[in-house]
Design a protein that fits this description.
The chain is mainly beta. It has four helices and 26 strands. Strand 3 and strand 4 form a beta hairpin.
Length: 469
């Protein structure tokens, strides 16, 4: 991290622009430091050194914003500015963000805290910050033109309110909204419960879903794209550059997921079931929860899911819109499966000797074969696992559950070594016998292996078959 002081001293204070006239005089003291972070790595949880205690979250490929205490008020400083985000090693995108990064730093507070957030605008246009899901005075809601004047370039506004309920929230612009969010401006806002023992978990992860449209070889998102995005990201990172989520066997794990893209994302976890325990509207009562393996998260929604990590291994965690687990590729590329391209290949190679046939047997060879790409272009399929190409990109990561992962240790334990006899393998014995035809319902059925299992009786639907009984 690099620390820098912005607009300190009486001369700068005189130029400070406040969001509403109700901000107290203490807010006009010298500004807190605006801490910068440019590393794309997942930072360790920030345990509170001042203020009330809480159990911190881990922001996937992100970090938590430090604060200072000023007469029992938590003060933060966000700087809205152009940033360069490394979405994957060697692939950098020009974005807008906060404090050197997209998303901006996670803000962590405790229910009942008085907070003061300074926002300095270093963008080339005006700005305003909306505190998504918060109950607060109307003048602090952050909607430019409606609840406040816009923050002009070079000016600083201050927002001051008391957080009134625990939960998972976010912040994002409400000025030139589509462009600024499309450029990567967003961040998490976590409000912890007053009682640290309430709904305590052993590991608490948080990340935001977003999408970008970056042409191959370019570095700036196309902000007018509505739906045809080609980069699907978690905290502005794409697989395999998204950090794994690690856990010790038996630990309770929470994942807080917010969606600031323009479409819904069914987030699916392998190997475990979970419950939705929270939304941006509050915690879900235990009596209202149900087991799931996929949680669909709509635009503007937050969901908290919880599970017991009791199955050791490396478990895929990904969006189940499967084109969201791929890198950029043109939507107009035709399907070539089954098309014989040999005659065409010979002709093209006379002009382009290095040309390769791709896609006639499927798309998997794009993850295994090196292809020449323009500079600063993300491959469509990327990532190597212990047994070959993973053939994924975009919105995906891995939940790594280990028996020997120490509590509080978030380092990557490497790939999982399955115990002997527990991995799918090639069958080299005699071909399995063909199944016999099923018997009529209600009569015993004898399988080829000699076991006898009766088929269940099937009740014919009555006149109210479509209703509940």
């Amino acid at each position: 991290m690099q620390r820098r002081n912005l607009l300190t001293g009486l001369a700068q204070t005189a130029a400070l622009v406040v969001a509403t006239a109700s901000v107290s005089r203490s807010a006009l003291a010298a500004l807190p430091e605006a801490v910068q972070q440019t590393s794309p790595d997942t930072a360790a949880p920030l345990h509170p050194a001042t203020g009330r205690p809480y159990n911190p979250v881990v922001t996937l490929n992100g970090w938590t914003c430090p604060w200072r205490m000023n007469q029992n008020v938590k003060e933060f400083h966000l700087v809205a500015e152009p940033v360069v985000r490394e979405m994957a090693p060697g692939f950098k995108v020009n974005m807008w963000g906060y404090n050197g990064q997209s998303p901006g730093p996670t803000i962590e507070v405790v229910e009942g805290d008085a907070v003061r957030i300074f926002v300095t605008n270093r963008l080339p246009e005006h700005h305003a910050v909306h505190w998504h899901g918060q109950r607060l005075p109307n003048g602090m809601d952050g909607v430019g033109g409606l609840t406040q004047r816009h923050i002009p370039p070079g000016k600083t506004f201050v927002y001051e309110f008391t957080v009134r309920r625990a939960g998972t929230f976010m912040y994002h612009p409400h000025a030139d909204d589509m462009l600024q969010v499309a450029m990567g401006m967003m961040g998490l806002f976590i409000v912890h419960p007053k009682n640290p023992a309430f709904m305590r978990v052993d590991r608490d992860y948080a990340f935001l879903l977003s999408a970008y449209d970056v042409d191959p070889g370019s570095a700036t998102p196309k902000v007018n794209t509505m739906l045809d995005f080609n980069l699907w990201a978690w905290n502005s990172r794409v697989f395999p550059a998204i950090s794994p989520l690690v856990a010790r066997v038996g630990e309770r794990v929470r994942m807080r997921i917010g969606n600031l893209s323009m479409t819904n994302h069914p987030i699916h976890l392998h190997g475990h079931e979970f419950e939705v325990t929270g939304t941006d509207g509050g915690w879900v009562p235990k009596t209202a929860r149900w087991p799931e393996v996929t949680a669909d998260i709509a635009p503007g929604q937050m969901r908290s899911i919880e599970l017991i990590a009791d199955e050791p291994g490396d478990w895929a965690l990904h969006c189940h819109k499967l084109h969201h687990t791929m890198g950029p590729m043109g939507h107009s590329v035709p399907t070539m499966i089954g098309v014989e391209q040999r005659d065409l290949l010979d002709k093209i190679q006379q002009v382009v000797p290095d040309y390769m046939v791709m896609g006639d047997k499927g798309m998997a060879d794009m993850g295994a074969m090196p292809m020449p790409l323009p500079d600063n272009t993300l491959p469509m399929m990327a990532g190597q696992g212990p047994y070959g190409p993973l053939e994924m990109g975009g919105m995906a990561s891995v939940l790594k559950v280990r028996a020997n992962q120490k509590p509080g240790d978030y380092t990557d334990p490497g790939w999982y070594a399955q115990p002997p006899g527990t991995q799918a393998r090639e069958w080299t014995g005699a071909p399995p016998p063909a199944p016999s035809a099923p018997s009529a319902p209600g009569t015993p059925h004898t399988a080829n292996h000699g076991d006898t299992q009766p088929y269940p009786q099937v009740r014919k639907p009555g006149p109210h078959a479509g209703g509940s009984h």
